[in-house]
Amino acid sequence: NMSNFIKRSGDTFIIANPVMPEENFADKWNENPEKAQEFFRWLESAKTAILTAPINAQGLHKVSEALEVCFGQNIVRRSLVDDGHDTRIARENKTLYVDGLTGGLKTTPSQTTKKVGGHTFFGE
Amino acid sequence: MANKGRYYRTSPLTLIQQKVALCSVYKGANCSIDKKKNQLFWTGKIKPTALSKEYTVVLVYHPGKSPKVWVVGDELEKLDDANFPHKFDIDTENKMVRICLYRYSEFSSSKLLANTIIPWTIEWLYYYELWLATGEWLGGGEHPEIGKPKTEDTNEEQ
């Protein structure tokens, strides 16, 4: 929704300061319109990288690849590792549940969930 | 005084009981019983998280033996990776892997597949996608002794 906060009056861009409406955050754009064009190019690529590509990806590994493009590999992988650890701890604490075959893993029970009992992945 | 509960063992569940539980909890899957072979066959599509792929899972269970669980299909990746986690065996040609979910006594024929094997499979698929993303198996577990790979026999009920 970021573009909704940018108004145009003829060729003039207006991003009003919410606490001081007479101040226009976009005054430099009006002096140099290329800055505005560059901002809108960035906005479109950010929407694609942060929203469209991850939402369209299927598989946590594919979502991860899409997010790594804009956030970098380290922070995205660290987030996944943290989620994996938290999920494992939830199972060990008997607070991990499955919601049917497609509802995913959850840490709060509901009428449709079933607890994931303690077990040990084994084998090679 | 003797401890009467010490050697108490719950009765094995029948295949009908297993089927009823599977069908009531996991809608949309297929479950059948082969009476001649005394065997239950279940197949369903599992999506471990809202952002995950949907995987086809096949479960075959014969009372007294270890349930066999396969993940099958084109969604599987890195089947030729030497470090592919927690599996019995991999068939790269037919794109299927038989997965290892538990250790020895954690499952017995007195436990419901619906409460054990299926939730553990959903969890395995979640950690599998994390492994594809990070290269780490984050679900914990144990590995058999080096030189003694887990076989079907070592996992059967005693």
If you had to describe this structure to a student in words, what would you say it looks like?
Chain A has helices spanning 27-31, 33-56, 60-71, 73-92; strands spanning 7-9, 12-14, 16-17, 20-24, 97-99, 105-106, 113-115. Chain A is of the alpha+beta class and 124 residues long. Chain A has a 3-stranded antiparallel sheet with strand order 6-5-7, with no helix packed on it. In chain A, α2 (33-56) packs antiparallel against α3 (60-71) and α3 (60-71) crosses α4 (73-92). The longest helix of chain A is centred in the middle third of the chain and has 24 residues, at 33-56. In chain A, 21% of the residues are buried. The model of chain A has no long low-confidence stretch (mean pLDDT 93). Chain B is α+β, with helices and mostly antiparallel strands and 158 residues long. Chain B is built from 2 helices and 6 strands; from the N terminus they run αββββββα. In chain B, strands 1-2-3-4-6-5 form a 6-stranded antiparallel sheet, with helices on one face. Chain B is globular, with a radius of gyration of 17 Å. The two termini of chain B are 28 Å apart. Chains A and B meet through α3 and α4 of A and β2 and α2 of B.
